[in-house]
Amino acid sequence: MCTEMGHLLSGYSLCAATEGQSKNSIAIVTRSVGYLEEFLTRHKASTDVREVTHLDIRAFILYLKEKRCFDNHPLNRARERGLSGHTINTYLRSIRIFFSWLLTEGIIEESPFDRVRIPRPPTKVIPTFTESQIRSLLDVIDTASSEGFRDYTMILLLLDTGLRVSELAGLRLPDVSIEDGLLKVLGKGNKERV
């Protein structure tokens, strides 16, 4: 059996899809493992999953901490700032998921993450809108038009409920009960909430 990282990704993707993982989650894992594979190849290290060590993962973490945003991106120019702590954390958790799958499948006997602590991203306080900012935002909307009324309603819904934009965009007419004052929302991970 071929144990090269790139070869095993299709098996992971198939398994994750049959277990109900979202396409986005699978894509993040695939992309993150691709970054690790690219890093290992560039540093002339093995991409055979049985040979990846905790030292390889630690070197990759240092690389990510020093990497600039959009480095080698085909459409965006590289920025001076580095990757955010959240981006690094997402990449590493995604790669750890892949190695956990390899362990479960019996492809590897030990995960290189068993001896690596993934750095926590810094906690950020999300600034809130002031009442005057909200009023200014709502005052510019022409509620006399159907589009304006829709936009006004959407902004109030986002502000009042804390819905994600993707959750709002996914709402359908059968999900709305005006009489009961309820919305049925399909959130991240296909989790339904009311």
- Cα gyration radius (Å): 22 Å
CATH superfamily of the largest domain: Tyrosine recombinase, N-terminal domain
The total tally of domains equals 2
Uncertain runs? none
Q: In the CATH scheme, what's the topology name of the largest domain?
A: DNA polymerase, domain 1
Oligomer: single chain
Give the overall silhouette: elongated
* Neighbour order of strands in the largest sheet: 1-2
How helix-rich are the residues, as a percent range?
40-55%
Topology order in helix (H) and strand (E) letters: HHHHHHHEEEE
Write down how many β-strands occur, each being a DSSP E stretch of 2 or more residues: 4
CATH architecture of the largest domain: Orthogonal Bundle
What proportion strand?
under 5%
